[in-house]
Amino acid sequence: MCRASLRCKFDLRERLPVVLGAPARLLVTACTMTALREASRCTEDASVSGAPFVARRFELRRCRHDEPLPVQECIAALIGEDNPHHYGVVTDAEELKNTARRIAGVPLVFLERTFPLLEAPRDYQTKVWRGSRAGSKI
């Protein structure tokens, strides 16, 4: 998403809270930073080489694994099975989108051309959420 935001001149820190309708803390994992740095070393493309500089403005979230994992595995491990910390995923990577869609309660934001979109929850995600709320007292 950092690459796409550079291409579209989209400031994630300013615009994401507007899209979500609430304040947002932007986090990046150590594995993601490693992947961005490695990709930026291998290319002349400004959107790729500038992505680590965009991501450095976000809060760094330490990973619990020793060796760097692929980004989608790292983020899936961070979120867990039931997303207890209420993380959302902002990405343009299809694999990561699919991973986030499998976990109920994970908001997914991506850029469609130059517009940020918040994906509507899938039917099964809504059912899981309603089921978890049925037993809780409000």
From TrEMBL:
Cited Gene3D superfamilies: 5'-nuclease
Q: Which domain of life is it from?
A: Eukaryota
Report the GO terms under cellular component.
small-subunit processome
Which InterPro entries did the record assign? Answer: Fcf1/UTP23
Task: Please provide the record's keywords in A-Z order.
Answer: Nucleus
Q: What is this protein called?
A: Uncharacterized protein
| Lineage, uppermost ranks | Eukaryota, Fungi, Fungi incertae sedis, Cryptomycota, Cryptomycota incertae sedis
